[in-house]
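Researcher: We're teaching a course module on how sequence relates to structure. For the next exercise, students receive a sequence and then see the predicted structure as tokens, so they can try to spot secondary structure elements on their own. Here is the exercise chain.
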Amino acid sequence: MSSVPLPILFIMAVFFTMWMILRVFHRQESAKRALPERGTYLQAHGLEEPSCHACGAAELKEDGLSHGKDAQRIVSCGKCKALLYRFERPRAAEEGEALPVDAHWRPLDSAERRE
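Model: And here is the predicted structure for the students to work with:
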């Protein structure tokens, strides 16, 4: 048997696993930040409208760079998941303009909540 105690081996394995996960995550984030801007992407691939350069699909998915409401947006293919380009959302949409609410919606008063 080895001279290193089992709990120490377990802790080392946990730290190594976490280090590998963080390394993969950092590479993915670096790849997102290195994507070209929308205009550069369209020009480089000779496209008029955005579509995937890998599979040709027009179905695109948009995510925030660091979180869902981030102004920096990352666009990827909805079919093959290839990262395509990035763009910045206009300020008006970021500042949280009032969204239209359905005219028929209203909060319930206390009598209606009991029913």
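Model: If you want an answer key for the exercise: DSSP finds four helices and three strands in the chain. The first helix runs from residue 6 to 33.
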